[in-house]
Amino acid sequence: MRLKIKHRTEYRYDAPLSYALQRLRLFPQSGPTQEVVEWSLKTEGATQEAQFIDGFGNDTRLVSIDGEPHTIVIEASGVVETRDTAGVTGRHQGLAPLWLFQQQTPLCTAGRGISTLLRGIDGETDVERLHNLMSEVRDRVAYRIGTTDAGTPAETALANGEGVCQDHAHIFLTAARMMGFPARYVSGYLRMDDRDEQAASHAWAETHLEGLGWVAFDCSNGISADDRYIRVATGRDYRDAMPVMGIRIGQAQEELAVQITVEQ
């Protein structure tokens, strides 16, 4: 499937910034599930300071903002040819060792809720057990926007019984690691069947299985990733793979607007 993506992020400030530095993970790479046909990353009101591949294999850009102007625009856009591989991404690559993806993080720390969740998970094979885990997370945590934020841990979202794709991924990751599997967070885009305009980018999880490599599980939709998915970045949790993150110095108030379209 050939998909066209446009992701525009606009920041408005009511006063000049003393300084700000942002880390951008908005550049997808070609691999077993996709081929990047064309892609561009443009900024207005910011200066690119560095470009590198981080320890998780993500194309990363650093941009700085100093003083004027009061509006900063970051726009990623391009065309990606995707392939349906039944969710299998393939063998592990990159500098980060597999054992790193079995470690807990502040957003993915297991407690009583995750332990209880796992009691009902069984299956004859690892793949079946993980599909059952995906279904259980989806059943227990309703998709509801505005009930969590970027800092909500997996245990809190599970206890609340509601959240978004980020929370589904964190709960799945935490549980899969308790089951003994390396598991990682994936950020990217999803082509929706009923609309082009989207409120946010998408997130799902991948688990590493012997003989298969990395396999994708999207709890929010109850499926393994197919050719409607575009991978952009991976990490141990959201903070390792978030599209835009940074720091700013100054008293200016910030307004944020995000526009995303994913078209076939």
Automatic annotation (TrEMBL):
Pfam families per UniProt: Bact_transglu_N, Transglut_core
Spans through the membrane: none
Signal peptide range in chain numbering: none
Keyword Hydrolase belongs to the record: yes
A biological process term (GO) from this entry: proteolysis
Keywords: Hydrolase, Protease
Top-level taxon: Bacteria
The keyword Hydrolase appears for this protein: yes
GO molecular function, one term: peptidase activity
Domain Transglutaminase-like: 157-221
SUPFAM superfamilies: Cysteine proteinases
Protein name: Transglutaminase-like enzyme, putative cysteine protease
Annotated source species: Nitratireductor aquibiodomus
